[in-house]
Amino acid sequence: MISKAKALVSILLALAILLVAGAATAAGLDAFSGKSGKIDIAGGTAHIPVMKEAAKRIMQTSPEIVITVAGGGSGVGVQKAGEGLVQIGNTGRAVSDEEVAKYGLVSFPFAIDGVAVVINPKNSVKELTAQQVKDVYEGKIANWKDVGGDDAPINLYTRDEASGTREVFWEKLLKKGPIASSANVVASNGAMKTAVAQDPAAIGYVSIGHIDDSIKAPLLEGVAPNQENAASGTYPVARKLYMNTKGEPEGLTKSFIEYILSPEGATIIEASGYIPIKK
Amino acid sequence: MFAGCAFLAALAVAFIFCFLAWFSLPLFSGGRLAPLFTWVWNPMQNQFGILPMAVSSLMLAATAMLGAYPAAVGLCFFMHGLGPSRLAGPLMSLVRFMTAVPTVAYGFVAAILLTPLLRQTFASGTGYCWLAASMALSVLILPTITLIVDGRFSNIAPGLRTTGEALGLSRSQILLHLVLPQSRRALIAAAALGFGRAAGDAVIALMLSGNAARVPHSPLDSMRVLAAHIALVLATDSQSEAYASLFACGLLLFAVIIAVNAVLRLLDRESSGGPGSRG
User: Fold this and answer.
1) For A181, which of B125, B214, B239 is closest by C-beta distance?
2) Which residues from A are below 8 Å from B236, CB to CB?
3) Taking Cα atoms as reference points, which of B189, B184, B202 lies closest to residue B270?
């Protein structure tokens, strides 16, 4: 009985996959049909889910095309695209003028990602003002009781200087204010989540796409930090995710970028937890 | 065959050194080096001091050795006479197994179990600190030291035991007065390798030490070592001053490890010539 039910489930699943694949072929992927070649992608880690899903759909319909997706961070994305090692280098920040001057990069923003202040779920604080967050990170406020919480010292967590998440947090929320040198530095959104989930006195910040039950995002100036508010501009602490190419993209690379910016690309971006930017 | 391999390995090290030196060369011109040898790392304010990281590297490697070295030598004593001989085999298997555990596994387990324990036990700090990284690093380098010392002990202990017993010495006297002095070279080699591994490790420090770029005042303070610093800053804008400073960090780390090796070599040479020093 059980094995029959299992068989039925697998058949249904296979059908569902075929249906999805069929639907995907119908729109957006036509540009790739009959073509062959290779696209290498590297750089920002927030981009990976979007790139992988797009690559999977393209390779399924056009088996002659090979697309590789690697991480490495925004700096690696700039460098590899600039040196011609990959066709697309992803960044979670706008490329600097120096980088554009050196490599002749062309940028394609495709998604919006908000950054939210996060605390431990045990923390009773429900709302913070931008000024409070600024003072906390500067070290002026060092106890949770000064912002409406329990009497406990605040443990600061921040990201490395290469982080696109840190850049938008520092520019848009701290207004380029100082971050206390005592702050612990973690190397990824995932590591930040682990650290804050374990430490009842922690304050940190993550990409909104990473928030789940293990951490809590208090209201900022009364606004809930979510992607909808980030896209509408109600929640100001947001950044864009970029694809970058060395010079104007051509051939397959151009088709790939157009696909990401197409309506079907938008559904992939939404499914990955980000807000798509229309072309 | 072996000479060829050794030559290749030496060549690789020489190439790494030349590569580092070549890329740090621009730093040595136009007064760009002096700002690096200062005590404040704050790229947002154009301060690129790497001294706190250099000092932290030495401090962390030293305390990790303080934990691991006596434990490893003690373990060798235990396996070669002090403990019951039927335990020696299983213990050695355990040590061999420990060498196969990837560093990231130690780091992850310690981040989940050790840091909350430290935070709760001492009720101060975040748990991500010098002490946490030092404890995990001790575990990491323990097998490296043990294997080298054990290799020497296995060679000479059985023969010396016969001699010692004929002289009426106890087991601990044999180990302390006969085996240990004859293992001087192995003890020095073990110290050099253990220290090099502790100073060069990036993953454990990155995951556990907290990474605040300043010299810690207590074992419960956050610290950032050179190797972790390189890992953190590597993804920044590749045209920035922060990125350029990494080559100086690499060079400094290289120099520190070479210096420690040189000092240990010197100790070895001073000790040679006297009786019982062929370690």
Assistant:
1) B214
2) 75, 161-162
3) B184
Answer whether A226's CB lies under 8 Å from A114's CB.
Answer: yes
B212 vs A: CB within 8 A = yes
Tell whether B233 lies on the interface with A, counting CB pairs under 8 A.
yes
Structure-block tokens of residue B104: 């990231």
Q: In angstroms, how far is CA A180 from the centroid of its own chain?
A: 26
Angle ∠(B153,B268,B16) on CA atoms, nearest 5: 100
Distance of CA A48 to the CA centre of its chain: 8
Q: What is the pLDDT of residues B73-106, one digit of tens each?
A: 999 999 998 888 899 999 999 999 999 999 999 9
ipTM over the 0.85 cut-off? no
Asked if residues A160 and B233 have their Cβ atoms less than 8 Å apart, the reply is yes
| Predicted confidence (pLDDT) per residue in A222-239, tens digit | 999 988 898 888 999 998
Token pair for A234? 């109600």
Q: Are strands A65-72 and A37-43 parallel, antiparallel or unpaired?
A: parallel
Q: How many CB atoms lie within 10 A of CB A70?
A: 16
B260 Cβ neighbours under 8 A, 6+ residues apart: B192, B195, B196, B199
Q: Cα separation of A152 and A119, whole Å?
A: 13
Q: Which residue of A has its CA nearest to B42?
A: A181
B125 to chain A: nearest residue by CA?
Answer: A155
Please, where are the H alpha helices in A145-275? 164-168, 189-198, 227-232, 251-260, 263-271
What does pTM read for this prediction? 0.80
Task: Evaluate whether B68 touches B106 at the Cβ level (below 8 Å).
Answer: no
